[in-house]
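Tokens for CAAX prenyl protease 1 homolog. Go.
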Amino acid sequence: MTTSLTFASITPHLKSHHHHNIIFSPNYSGKLNRTRCNGERPTSNSSSSKRESESENALLKVAWYSSELLGIAASFFRSPSNSSTEASEKDIKLGKDVSGAIDRAVVVETIKEDFQKSYFVTGSLSLEAYEENCEFADPAGSFEGLQRFKRNCTNFGLLIEKSNMKLTKWEDFEDKGIGHWRFSCVMSFPWKPILSATGYTEYYFDEQSGRVCRHVEHWNVPKMALLKQLLKPSQGFMILMYIFETYLDLRQHAALKRPTLPKTLKGVISQEKFEKSRAYSLDKSYFNFVHEFVTILLDSAILFYGILPLFWKKSGSFLVLVGLNEENEIFHTLAFLAGVMIWSQITDLPFSLYSTFVIEARHGFNKQTTWMFFRDLFKGICLAILLGPPIVSAIILIVQKGGPYLAIYLWAFMFVLSLVMMTLYPVLIAPLFNKFTPLPEGELREKIEKLASFLHFPLKKLFVVDGSTRSSHSNAYMYGFFKNKRIVLYDTLIQQCKNDEEIVAVIAHELGHWKLNHTMYSFIAVQILTFLQFGGYTLVRNSTDLFRSFGFDTQPVLIGLIIFQHSVIPLQHLVSFGLNLVSRAFEFQADAFAKKLGYGSALRAGLVKLQEINLSSMNTDPWYSAYHYSHPPLVERLAAIGEPDKKAD
């Protein structure tokens, strides 16, 4: 439920919210150039400062357009106050001289009056004082159009509960006026962030009309205060998500306690199997309540008591103690990860032991001995020690040398790494934990090979895995690239299914995912998300203030990834929910594919058998399943399959 700040935090599948340094101080030039409003821009002092400015403002551009869209969305749900609307409609007609120009003093006084109406957030400004195609600029970007500016200001005001804007000083120059101001507001978000800033606005006057032709804002935002306000939702969201998901767990717990089967399953699932499934699900539900409560306590303590910064410093001290250089970021990161992995194993071990040797054993699933459990645990740690350092080192070096194309390099590295791991895992890693043997010659093998041939599936190998040595749960899956596909059946599935047709129907479902390109679509989606996540990370990796807000004086790559992951907890849950919806749709399509091949009846029987074997939940709460399940509940799948079609030739 919660985001655990452990070794998993360094994985590339991060989801994040970005914050950035947005302080801007006045920088008046000693020489004032006359402005003709012809689209010219002042030249920069150096190309390096220009590059720094472009990099610094990248996030602000995102923030600007996001706030503009958010304001437009808000305008559909709320309307401006009557006073704001009336004030904006009472536009002042300014007097002109014989040449048609407006006296500058009159325009200045009008601007000062607009400040009194907080025109930044109300949109109530005197239109006569501005050129219709006036350019409006701020640190995030610029655009032309008086009406667009007025609309943006009005919409932004809908996101604010209270605001205060005061003109503190006015300066007149040859071709412009500068208004210094102080602004504060309370945003209309659930956590009520209070934002405040000082700044100044440059008003450039057109030579001919006397109106404002350029309106350039400069914001000086207190960085730490802003970050603390913006980070409130990401920190609080962890708690809010725990409360929300606990509510869903309670709904599911109530559904599990129902003493009767769903109508669809009556006559399909025996009462004995239902009672066993109900008892197993309730045991797991009770266990989940305890596990998640302890997890949220640990995560909250890590976050709010600055455990990570302390752990980072201690890992550096350990390096010095053993004679290594703590300034070497790779060594420092690996020492930090080693400590985090030890902590993670210590905190997770009691729950793993109880789940395996109490709950799973109580319901007849656990088949492994204590020796086998700790042997697998040791193998996993050894793999982490073997594979972790080169991967982490590569990521750090890429971030340090990546430059402007960092997101592309990180994505490319993870793309290649995922292909390598998908290739090596079934060949080198999976056999360390299970034994894979070819499916013996016989009727079942012939039927599967015939189905694969009919669908032009490039089946190269067909394996049986000894899942029964650890658990009586069952499954089937396929893997492999291009023309080198393999299918794996759990021996428990073969032992417990009544006939071969049920197993072949399950395989037909899996092949449906391949035939309908679900695997490819999912892989592409993961790659897109990975690239976007790394793109978001590049926006915050150099933000000193963001690191300091989490208690870090330095900016290590790994810590940046962890902070980035935590800061986007809301987005993580939204993306996960969306992916579940897509996955559920894919499952229905694969079921329909198997039914179209004539395996509808066998698939129904096979799904029921899998449900019985695994003692999966028979009664599910619709909210809980929609949020958590990547596969639809059995009731929905059986209803969708309906009556089977005739078998395809």
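The radius of gyration is 31 Å.
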